């Protein structure tokens, strides 16, 4: 590992990232989903840090990472490249990577790009909408929530409404500072990331050839389309999908249970 212990700004892949490192032991990287902010993983990181060196970061143009005002286009592959570049800059040995929702897509894409960087991949509720039989059903459940939020509070209201909806019963556990920066960076989520992430899908042949151990987790309280997406990955990768407590952002309400799955995948 590098010399970071605590929080630091790290330059990699043409951007500057806020990175948090805590604990000691085998390394685990946490890739955030909507909002792109490591603070959503605060409780999970604390539990994992008892046995691991935990690396969490704010994604490009999100949270406390540097902002590029003219940034309007991105892709899952760009964010996967950021993950690999960050690990190289930090000098991190091969690690377990965990991602929730769109963070799971980034984690998976990074492992497919650079399998030697990872000893395990744990995907929780992957938002892989591009493989759904009826993708419009998924969007139909989300779009009215965002639209109502935008009507009440502009892009900031739409972004917060979306994440509150995604968190479900665990929404009250979202850190206030995370929500504050989410509102400030609403354009990134709704205009740069939302459509690009929804369109991404891995090649089934690449999943079938994966050599890195892969764990696929679905939440007990989730929408059918998230189960379908998780099962699609599991089937093509030749692994079993497991069910864990909580909802789509169950790491907020059940950090101990999610940490155990990450331990098992390390």
Automatic annotation (TrEMBL):
Domain of life, per lineage: Bacteria
InterPro entries from the UniProt entry: AB_hydrolase, AB_hydrolase_1
Pfam family, one: Abhydrolase_6
Keywords: Hydrolase
Cleaved signal peptide residues: none
Coiled-coil boundaries: none
A single MF term (Gene Ontology): hydrolase activity
Domain AB hydrolase-1: from-to ranges: 28-260
PANTHER family listed in its UniProt record: AB HYDROLASE-1 DOMAIN-CONTAINING PROTEIN (PTHR43433:SF5), HYDROLASE, ALPHA/BETA FOLD FAMILY PROTEIN (PTHR43433)
Name of the protein this chain belongs to: Alpha/beta hydrolase
Lineage summary: Bacteria, Bacillati, Actinomycetota, Actinomycetes, Micrococcales
């Amino acid at each position: 590992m590098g010399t970071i212990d605590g929080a630091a700004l790290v330059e990699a892949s043409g951007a500057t990232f806020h990175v948090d490192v805590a604990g000691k032991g085998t390394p685990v990287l946490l890739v955030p989903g909507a909002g792109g902010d490591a603070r959503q993983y605060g409780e999970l990181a604390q539990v994992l840090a008892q046995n691991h060196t935990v690396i969490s970061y704010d994604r490009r143009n999100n949270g406390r990472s540097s902002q590029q005002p003219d940034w309007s286009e991105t892709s899952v592959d760009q964010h996967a490249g950021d993950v690999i570049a960050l690990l190289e800059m930090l000098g991190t040995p091969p690690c377990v990577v965990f991602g929730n929702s769109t963070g799971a897509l980034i984690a998976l894409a990074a492992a497919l790009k650079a399998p030697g960087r990872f000893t395990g991949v744990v995907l929780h509720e992957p938002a892989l909408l591009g493989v759904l039989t009826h993708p419009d059903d998924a969007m139909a459940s989300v779009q009215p929530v965002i639209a109502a939020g935008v009507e009440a509070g502009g892009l900031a209201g739409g972004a917060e409404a979306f994440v509150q909806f995604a968190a479900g019963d665990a929404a009250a556990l979202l850190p206030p500072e995370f929500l504050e920066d989410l509102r400030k960076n609403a354009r990134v989520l709704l205009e740069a990331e939302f459509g690009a992430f929804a369109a991404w899908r891995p090649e089934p042949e690449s999943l079938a050839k994966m050599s890195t151990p892969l764990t696929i987790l679905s939440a007990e309280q989730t929408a059918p389309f998230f189960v379908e997406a998780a099962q699609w990955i599991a089937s093509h990768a030749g692994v079993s999908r497991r069910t864990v407590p909580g909802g789509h952002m169950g790491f907020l309400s059940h950090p101990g249970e999610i940490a155990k799955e990450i331990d098992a995948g390390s």
